[in-house]
Amino acid sequence: MRTIKLPAGKKAYFASDNHLGAPTAEKSAVRERKFVAWLDQIKADAGVIFLVGDLFDFWFEYKTVVPKGFVRTLGKLAEIVDSGIPIYYFVGNHDLWMNGYFEEELHIPVFHRPQQFEINSTSFFIGHGDGLGPDDKGYKRMKKVFENPFAKWMFRWLHPDLGVRLAQYFSVRNKMISGADDVEFLGEDKEWLVLYAKRKLETQHYDHFIFGHRHLPLEIDLTETSRYTNLGDWITYYTYAVFDGKNLSLETYH
Questions:
Q1: Comparing 166 with 131, which gets the higher pLDDT?
Q2: Do 102 and 90 contact (CB within 8 A), yes or no?
């Protein structure tokens, strides 16, 4: 478990699911400027920032090439890290093909699996959320294919102009940004990330479970001392979580 001590007056921020690049570069640019403005605002009192996946609608790192665009976001992230504020990144199902660029160029640690953090003696279990919990066996099989080194090697042989455009087309066409299940609360007994969190609590206590992926802002008490928070998205809700060292709250950026 990684331990973080927030300096006096500093906070921890959490955000996910920007899907930059979708549905078009033009529409995405509006959301990107809003997100960059938020980053510019929170850097005044941020002690640490967690980006919990799907910052991009598609991301693939060739050995010498990364997808075009997002320079305002990448530049702002670099500025924040260079100022001394750590940022942690969790890959999502749309940007799981990260392989060193964020670490080498931005000095941002990247996690491909959920991680445990202790912030000011409060325990957090943090992850994007895809592939966790019961059901969704079809996606879990698909994820194994995408994570397979041979599949990544094969895709790398496609010219970036073809590979990136093809991947972006299927991502938007298949409505992977936000499906019908992501805009409707299913109930605690059917919310699969809630069920996953409750199962984790059977073996170890966490004060907070932080996930993205669902695109729906949610705050659910799992027990009297443990809470599940879904961060929503930066497509429809523009929500994020903030921890002031004692309390965690879900907020909306206006």
A1: 131
A2: no
